[in-house]
């Protein structure tokens, strides 16, 4: 039997938070097309603040990657985020009639903590450190999106958030990204491995906490 990969072991160590996130009420309502508009508005405003730092973290991964091939792949993914995904946000915020002043909201605690974690991962100035958070953000979103079954919800605000995270390009990218972290991990000593594990574990907990926060107050 082959050994489970580094990323498989990291996910298994966070199974409770991971499973709670990918089966969360928010993703179940998204699949059913029944997220209350106030919750969807809040999610999108807050997630757009997440994406800002996420793009910066991708930049850090591009800067620290150990090959031009990896930089090209990461840059191709970055190009999708700043085009298709960015226009999804603006179209969805328009469709939900979110006024400009609400789009400039302050990050709520879970999002703020996630922004700080992404800054910490970038500040490791190591490819493995940046990947430890990127892998969580992309793989966990793929995992909930691929659980969707049956026809997509009619509203593009729901449907496109699912298809952006479950399509052949995204699936291939996540598999490649995991492979990069598995490969980068082989060059790390015990301290480096435990730093990656800590970033990964905290990212999974924050994915769950962000979903939970959407239902904290009646929105
Ligand atoms: C919080 C969060 N995690 C992951 C993704 C996927 O990129 C996202 N858009 N938001």
Automatic annotation (TrEMBL):
<dbReference type="Pfam" id="PF03070">
    <property type="entry name" value="TENA_THI-4"/>
</dbReference>
<comment type="pathway">
    <text>Cofactor biosynthesis; thiamine diphosphate biosynthesis.</text>
</comment>
<keyword id="KW-0784">Thiamine biosynthesis</keyword>
<comment type="function">
    <text>Catalyzes an amino-pyrimidine hydrolysis reaction at the C5' of the pyrimidine moiety of thiamine compounds, a reaction that is part of a thiamine salvage pathway. Thus, catalyzes the conversion of 4-amino-5-aminomethyl-2-methylpyrimidine to 4-amino-5-hydroxymethyl-2-methylpyrimidine (HMP).</text>
</comment>
<feature type="domain" description="Thiaminase-2/PQQC">
    <location>
        <begin position="15"/>
        <end position="216"/>
    </location>
</feature>
<dbReference type="InterPro" id="IPR016084">
    <property type="entry name" value="Haem_Oase-like_multi-hlx"/>
</dbReference>
<dbReference type="InterPro" id="IPR050967">
    <property type="entry name" value="Thiamine_Salvage_TenA"/>
</dbReference>
<keyword id="KW-0378">Hydrolase</keyword>
<dbReference type="InterPro" id="IPR026285">
    <property type="entry name" value="TenA_E"/>
</dbReference>
<dbReference type="InterPro" id="IPR004305">
    <property type="entry name" value="Thiaminase-2/PQQC"/>
</dbReference>
<protein>
    <recommendedName>
        <fullName>Aminopyrimidine aminohydrolase</fullName>
        <ecNumber>3.5.99.2</ecNumber>
    </recommendedName>
</protein>
<comment type="similarity">
    <text>Belongs to the TenA family.</text>
</comment>
């Amino acid at each position: 039997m082959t050994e489970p990969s580094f990323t498989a072991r990291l996910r298994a160590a966070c199974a409770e938070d991971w499973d709670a996130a990918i089966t969360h009420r928010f993703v179940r309502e998204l699949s059913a097309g029944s997220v209350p508009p106030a919750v969807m508005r809040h999610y999108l405003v807050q997630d757009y603040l997440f994406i800002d730092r996420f793009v910066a973290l991708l930049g850090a991964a591009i800067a620290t990657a150990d090959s031009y091939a990896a930089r090209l792949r990461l840059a191709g993914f970055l190009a999708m985020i700043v085009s298709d995904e960015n226009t999804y946000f603006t179209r969805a915020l328009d469709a939900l009639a979110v006024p400009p002043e609400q789009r400039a909201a302050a990050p709520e605690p879970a999002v703020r903590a996630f922004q700080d974690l992404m800054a910490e991962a970038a500040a490791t100035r190591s490819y493995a450190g940046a990947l430890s958070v990127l892998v969580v953000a992309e793989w966990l979103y793929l995992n909930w999106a691929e659980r969707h079954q049956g026809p997509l919800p009619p509203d593009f605000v729901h449907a496109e958030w699912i298809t952006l995270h479950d399509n052949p390009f995204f699936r291939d990218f996540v598999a490649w990204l995991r492979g990069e972290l598995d490969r980068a991990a082989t060059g790390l000593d015990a301290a480096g491995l435990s730093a990656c594990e800590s970033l990964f574990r905290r990212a999974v907990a924050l994915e769950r906490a962000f979903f939970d926060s959407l239902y904290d107050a009646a929105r």
